[in-house]
Design brief:
The chain is mostly helical and 409 residues long. It has helices at 25-34, 45-55, 69-84, 89-96, 103-117, 122-126, 135-147, 150-201, 213-227, 229-248, 250-262, 266-287, 292-299, 306-320, 325-330, 337-349, 352-408; strands at 3-9, 15-21, 38-44. Helix 9 crosses helix 17 (352-408).
């Protein structure tokens, strides 16, 4: 069914903008007027998007629209509540469409509702939007539909999404201040080197003696920043683009992920974060009836590191041959020893899902503690780095002055 975007006036005379699905523009107008909403403009969303793509075929979107994880978590929670209250699935989704935060999410939910009405399962309808709904989400919904426990599965999905979002928010908030300090420090240094230093060092041009090496170096850097700022402005985006392209290639991605694991501090944090994601997601999938092999195939795509994903893939092959999950993961030597031990205990006791949840709790807390510790360490390091550079600038300016004083004496 076509989806239309409209602007209209309500009974209070306020302008409202939303979307509506209907068979035609005329039917959409009638539906809006029946709800005491008087449209001023209606246009079909699909047609407008097609015109945009045709008009700008060679201009890629720098910031493509995406649905926020918080929106997905809220929708999932609300959908579980409505289904538990006895709402049919289609009616529940239709009820949630106006409450969606973004237009793109409203559009996706409308299209999912239409697909279900045409005979598709909920999981199949979700699978058409991989950028919005992950493989984990789709497979858990599929298992919930087959077992008749969709509302319970949706509750667990909401819990998983909210926990991942909360962890990401804590990491982001812990790193915000050091990153802000770093960029402000870079701006201050650029101002000093490109504006203040040239004005001070200009007095040395009339001196008839050779300047000290630090002063010559400072003047050269200052001239480079003052006259070559456009090179830096163009060079940074080029470097970022090249690195991004390398990360997308197989060899580049492998090299980047291997480097992250070998860096001190960063490697430990990367491993802990991957283990937390692996444990939490695997436990949730197993609890909802997904087989171990299928769950491992899904989980390897969300750990965020190619080397760790390869080790999970190898473990899945060994498990399919009848091997143990814990021993198969141990051969890669990428996972912490306590993690391997707890998985082996879980396999022997039949409590694998419970222990995986405990592992996830342990490593999520360790990730947060590690990030807070790193952010606390970064602050004095940045201050020390700034202080060293400022000291070098001051000494480079004072050295010729000291030599001038000696000559006068």
């Amino acid at each position: 069914m076509p989806i239309y975007e409209y602007s209209a006036l309500n009974l209070k005379g306020k302008m409202v903008t939303d979307i509506i699905d209907s068979e035609s523009i005329g039917a959409a107008r009638q539906k809006l007027r029946a709800a005491n909403i008087y449209p001023t403009s209606i246009r079909e969303v699909y047609e407008r998007e097609t015109r945009k793509k045709t008009a700008l075929p060679f201009f890629p979107k720098l910031f493509p629209q995406k649905v926020k994880p918080s929106e997905i978590a809220m929708m999932t929670r609300q959908l579980a509540t409505l289904i538990s209250a006895g709402f049919p699935l289609v009616s529940a989704i239709y009820t949630l469409i106006p409450q969606a935060g973004s237009k793109i999410f409203k559009r996706i939910l409308s299209q999912i509702k239409d697909a279900i009405e045409e005979g598709s399962s909920f999981a199949d309808a979700l699978s058409h939007y991989p950028a919005t709904f992950s493989d984990i989400y789709v497979n858990m919904v599929r298992s919930g539909e087959s077992s008749g426990t969709l509302e319970l599965v949706l509750e667990r999905l909401a819990d998983i999404t909210e926990k991942h979002q909360a962890l990401n928010n804590r990491i982001r908030s812990a790193l915000t201040y050091p990153v802000l300090m770093f960029f402000l420090g870079v701006l201050v240094l650029y101002f000093l080197l490109s504006y203040v230093v040239p004005r001070i060092t200009s007095i040395f041009s009339d001196m008839g003696q050779a300047l000290p090496a630090p002063t010559r170096f400072l003047i050269a850097v200052s001239e480079l920043l003052k006259s070559g700022w456009w090179v830096i402005l163009i060079g940074i985006p080029i470097i970022v683009t090249v690195i991004g392209r390398l990360k997308k290639s197989e060899k580049g991605k492998y090299w980047y992920d291997r480097t992250k694991l070998t860096l001190p501090g960063v490697g430990t944090l990367t491993t802990k974060l991957a283990v937390a994601r692996f444990a939490r997601t695997l436990a949730t999938l197993l609890e909802n009836g997904v087989t171990l092999l299928k769950a491992l195939d899904i989980v390897k795509n969300i750990v965020g590191n190619r080397l760790i994903a390869d080790s999970i893939e190898y473990a899945a092959i060994e498990v399919e041959k009848g091997g143990s999950l814990g021993k198969s993961l141990e051969t890669s030597r990428l996972f912490p020893h306590i993690f391997i031990q707890m998985i082996q205990v879980g396999e022997q006791s039949g409590e694998l899902e419970t222990l995986l949840h405990k592992i996830a709790d342990i490593y999520e807390n360790e990730v947060e503690t590690t990030v807070v510790g790193l952010s606390a360490l970064l602050e004095p390091v940045i201050i020390l780095f700034m202080g060293v550079i400022v000291l070098f600038i001051v000494l480079s300016i004072l050295l010729p002055i000291f030599e001038m004083n000696q000559l006068v004496r």
